[in-house]
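Ticket #4471: structure output looks truncated?

Reporter: J.K.
Steps to reproduce: submitted the chain below (315 residues) through the standard prediction queue, then opened the result file.
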Amino acid sequence: MGDREFRRGTPPVCIADGKPEAAPEPLLDVAEAVRGGWIELWYQPKVDARALAMRGAEALLRFRHPAWGIVPPSYVMPNDGSPIFHPLSESVIRRAIEDWHYFFAKRGPVETAINLPIAFLQDSESFSRLRKLIPDDPAFNGLIVEINGTEIVRNLKLAKELASELRKHKIAISVDELGAEWLQLAGVCNFPFVELKVDRKFIAGCAEDRLKQSICRRIVELADSYGARTVADGVENWADFHAVREIGFDLAQGALFAEPMSAERFAQTSWAGAQACPPSPRPSSRVELGFTSYQPHPLSDRRERQVTLLRPSRD
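Returned output as attached by the reporter:
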């Protein structure tokens, strides 16, 4: 569900006392995890590429087994057609909303993104329950749902309809892991997606790769034309960060800033990254979107864009 920290093809591990260990067999039963309440969300910050201040976080799924510790989701996730998939997705949504209230009490409102497949949103009952779970709180500026770019492109008409409807309920869709598919989003009328999140394979090493820079620049230009914001995912060193900032990404996410962390640790984390790497001014004429109340960095005359969730998109 969008977690790129753990990958298939490597031995499964669990984490106990901070040390990875081989996960025992059999692997975790997801239905048991849902029933037992073993689901957690760990949060990785999204950082303003100009001010280096935190502007939100992506919630990444974890399973905390009472004996094994944290079990990576990539080895136990059911496919979209599994009967347990919808209950699991609903558990993720409920936990994300609970965590939002927890963050609000500890540090103020946090823009939260979760990962869901388009199949979940396509189900009318799940769609309805999702809308009802959204807090009726004026401090809640909205929920971002990240959907894989390949899924978006393959179901573009449906994705547009869902995104337009969700915007009426403080829910916005981000096009996640976007890569070569970006060309198929060019020329889309009434673009309802609020965010384009570029796949880490185009971010890693982009400082030294002109082809990657070119692709990233075209995606940023596409987002600009639609009034959407951009996220560079998988930023792991300062060279790549400087490259994505120069290209014009709005937000950056990756191990350079923080690994995914528990909700408790996230709530206690303070951010003062601007002192570590002062942003360079770069003017921009991008339109404002409206999401959280961004404030322009004093060293930049760039207008900060905001994702509009409080009002529906225009059809």
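Triage note (M.O.): checked the attachment and the full token line is present. Confidence is low (pLDDT under 50) at residues 4-20, 272-276, 278-315.
Status: closed, working as intended.
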